[in-house]
Structure formats: C-alpha cells, structure tokens
C-alpha cells in the first residue's frame, strides 16, 4: 500500500476483459461479469480512497509538517521503486487467466518469483533514494517500508489473475479491509507516540497480512494445477512479459517523479503541502478510474477495432463528470484542506487550482491510456518517455523558484500534451489485433 495517488498506468491496464463480441461493459465475460467487476472494484476504490484521504488527514493533524512530509516522501519513493517490480507480469497474468480455464502452477509461480526478487532489489534502491533525500541517519525506515514493496508483488499478482476472470469481489474486499485496518493501526501507532516509524511499521504489517490472505481467497476462484501448459509458459516468460512494462514504468515515473524532485529541491515541508493538494486532485479522478476499469473489457479482445469508439463513448461521460467535480472542488478546496489536513495546508490556493485543472486532462488520460497501450505500445512508450523528460526539465526549472506551484504547472502542461498526442493516435481500425504472446510453431 502507498499514498494512493496516481496509478492510471498500473491500475486500469490490468483489468483485462476478453470477449470478442463485447459491445458494452455489461456483456458477460467468459469466466465472470466485466460490468459487475467494474462496479465492485470501482465502488471499493471510491470508498477506499475516502478512507485513505481521512487517514492522511489524521496523520497530518497528529504529525508536524516535516514529519508528515517525511512520511509522504517515503511512501512516494516506495511507489516509485515499485515500478521495477512489475516486469509486465500482472498484465500478462490477467490475459492468461482470461484465456485459459486452468493455470499452469509452475508458470505462475515462476513469474511471481521473478517479481519477488525484483522487489528486494527495489527495496535496496528505496533505501538509497531515501538516504540521498537527506535521511541517511534513518535509512532503516526505508528498509521497513521495503517490506511492503516486496510482499505487494504477491498480492498484486493474485489480484491480476482474478481480474482476468472478471472477478472483483476479492479485490474489492482487499481495498476496503486493508484501508480500514491501516487507518486503525496508524492511529494506534501515532497515539502511542511512535511517530513516523510506527506508521511505516503499520504499512508493512498491513501489506504482509494481505500478501498471505489475498492469495488464499484467490485460490477459491482460480483453477491452478501442475499440468504443464507450453502456451502459458511462453506468455508468462520474461521475454514475453518484459516488453509490456516499459510504458508502465515510464508512466508511473512520470506521475511520481515530481514529489521526489520537490523533496530534493525544496525539502519535506514542500512535499507535505504538495501531497495534500495532490490527494484532493486524485480524489477528483475517482469517477474516471471507475469508468476506466471497464475500458479493456468494453473493447474486448478486438481492442484495435473497437478502441477509438469505446474511448469516445467513455470520454464523454468522464470529462463531463470530472469537470463538474473539479469546478466544485476549486471553490471549496482551501476549506476542505484546512478541515482535512490542518489550517496550514489550505493557504496555497494557486497550487490547488492548477492541480484541479490538471484533473480534466488527467481524467481523459485515465480512460485512453489502457486502450492505446494495447493498440500502439511503442508510440505510448516513446511519448511517455518524452513526457517524463519534459516533466523533469520543467520541475528543475520551476520548482527552485516557485516550489509546489512550479511542480503543479509542469504536471498540467505535460498532462495536456500527452492527452492530445494519445487521442490523435488512437487507431480507428487496424487489421490485426495484438496478442500478448504466442508459442513458437
């Protein structure tokens, strides 16, 4: 678990619905119901997002600005290094789970094992980044959160397999129970005077328990046996999965790099202000994420043929809803932040306004990204890399002078640019739909 900010690159992308003839999100999936899954997960994430916001608000009230900044920084860095643990496995596993009635235990376990090893490497990198952000004396704090980075690879892999079956009840329960458990554990830790260290331990304990319980319940819905399935082993092999993750890594780095740069250039207090505002921005995107959860399922296996039509249909409602919520949020945002995080957090209305304006192109990208990634992966990789470079450059130029306002401005500009590029390049119709991997003849 992390801050619960960003995430359009790893969340909607892995909801792989798989009917050739889907015409709406309410069609039956071969194993489950894509519309029902979308509703379950969307509702749970909406409620879970509110619980997360409440938890961060409580933490902000009970910690000093610098302590809250340190907490949000280690969580953000954890999200950043976790990008290297994906390895393309969740998307490939969802597709394999969708296309096959039984899963090859050896293939699945091998893929998850690779992710666990990558998790340990990411945990070491987390300690390095945390120490270089001015916290070398408390390097062990990042080490504790590194436990979360490692064990989450197990949880997310199990959930990906369930998404491929269009089964959302386990993930919905996980979202709700884990967020409530974390809130209670975090409040207890802070009440006992354990500070940031106690909160980080609460995250590690929550994620460790989830990594044990989620796979247990997932097995009730998945048929996994020892039979060797060559096609599944090819699809879940490193050579097949690794190309799927490039855009995911670049996209998530693009969304989260500004927090680390802000910490390096302006300190943890600026991070605290920015994350508080960013959390409100992220809450505005909740309806868009609920819509995007059905994007791949709505397009079906023939995503190249149906992608633009589905995106156009989903975009209309998404932009309309997000614009209305953003307008309301701009009017009351300072009051909301003061109530949620404390009186000091609602002073910078400019940063709040810029980030909330960013939610409009951001919501559109939430819907478009999973579709265009499967249609034109190389284009997405190239332009996302360009967006990441532009975001870093803009932050380096603007943050030293304008602080959080500069980071928000850089984000708004790059979000809008990526939306234009992605929309213009959504194919209306292409001859041959892609496959994640096929066995050699």
Domain unit count: 2
SS-derived structural category:
mainly alpha
Could you spell the SSE succession in H and E letters? HHHEHHHHEHHHHHHHHHH
Rg (CA only): 21 Å
Residues in β-strands, percent: under 5%
Q: What percent of residues adopt helix (DSSP H or I)?
A: over 70%
Overall form: globular
| Sequence stretches where pLDDT stays below 50 over 5 or more residues | 9-29, 430-441
Structure annotation, total helices: 17
Which helices and strands, and how do they pair?
Blueprint: H1 34-62, H2 65-82, H3 89-99, E1 103-104, H4 105-135, H5 139-164, H6 169-191, H7 195-218, E2 224-225, H8 230-235, H9 238-241, H10 246-266, H11 268-284, H12 286-292, H13 295-299, H14 303-341, H15 349-375, H16 377-402, H17 404-424
Parallel strand pairs: 1-2
Characterization of the model:
The protein is mainly α and 441 residues long. The chain has two domains: 34-236, no CATH class; 244-432, no CATH class. 76% of the residues lie in helices and 1% in strands. The protein has 17 helices and two strands. The chain has helices spanning 34-62, 65-82, 89-99, 105-135, 139-164, 169-191, 195-218, 230-235, 238-241, 246-266, 268-284, 286-292, 295-299, 303-341, 349-375, 377-402, 404-424, and strands spanning 103-104, 224-225. It has a two-stranded parallel ribbon.
């Amino acid at each position: 678990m992390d801050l619960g900010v960003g995430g359009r690159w790893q969340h909607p992308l892995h909801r792989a619905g798989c009917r050739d003839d889907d015409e709406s999100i309410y069609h039956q999936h071969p194993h489950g119901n894509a519309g029902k899954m979308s509703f379950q997960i969307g509702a749970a994430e909406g409620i879970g997002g509110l619980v997360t916001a409440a938890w961060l608000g409580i933490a902000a009230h009970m910690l000093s600005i610098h302590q809250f900044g340190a907490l949000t920084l280690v969580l953000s860095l954890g999200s950043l290094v976790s990008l290297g643990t994906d390895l393309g496995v969740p998307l490939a596993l969802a597709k394999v789970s969708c296309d096959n009635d039984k899963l090859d235990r050896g293939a699945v376990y091998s893929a998850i094992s690779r992710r666990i090893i990558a998790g340990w490497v990411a945990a070491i990198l987390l300690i390095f980044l945390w120490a270089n952000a001015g916290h070398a004396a408390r390097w062990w704090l990042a080490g504790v959160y590194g436990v979360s980075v490692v064990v989450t690879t197990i949880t997310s892999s199990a959930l990906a397999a369930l998404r491929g079956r269009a089964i959302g009840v386990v993930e919905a329960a996980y979202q709700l129970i884990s967020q409530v458990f974390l809130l209670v554990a975090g409040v207890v830790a802070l009440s006992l005077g354990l500070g940031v260290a106690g909160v980080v331990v609460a995250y590690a304990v929550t994620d460790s328990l989830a990594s044990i319980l989620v796979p247990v319940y997932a097995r009730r819905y998945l048929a996994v046996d020892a039979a060797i399935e060559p096609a599944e082993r090819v699809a879940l092999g490193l050579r097949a999965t690794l190309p799927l993750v490039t855009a995911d890594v670049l996209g998530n780095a693009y969304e989260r790099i500004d927090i680390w740069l802000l910490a390096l250039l302006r300190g943890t207090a600026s991070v605290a202000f920015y994350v508080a505002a960013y959390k409100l921005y992220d809450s505005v995107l909740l309806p868009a994420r609920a819509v995007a959860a059905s994007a791949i399922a709505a397009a079906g296996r023939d995503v190249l043929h149906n992608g633009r039509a589905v995106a156009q249909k989903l975009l209309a409602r998404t932009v309309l809803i997000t614009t209305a919520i953003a307008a309301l949020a701009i009017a009351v945002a300072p009051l909301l932040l003061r109530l949620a995080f404390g009186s000091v957090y609602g002073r910078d209305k400019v940063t709040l306004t810029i980030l909330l304006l960013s939610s409009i192109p951001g919501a559109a990208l939430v819907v478009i990204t999973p579709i265009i990634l499967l249609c034109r992966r190389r284009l997405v990789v190239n332009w996302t890399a360009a967006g990441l470079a532009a975001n870093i450059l803009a932050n380096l130029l603007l943050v030293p002078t304008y602080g959080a306002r500069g980071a928000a401005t850089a984000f708004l500009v790059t979000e809008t640019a990526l939306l234009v590029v992605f929309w213009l390049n959504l194919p209306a119709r292409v001859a041959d739909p892609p496959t994640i991997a096929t066995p050699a003849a």
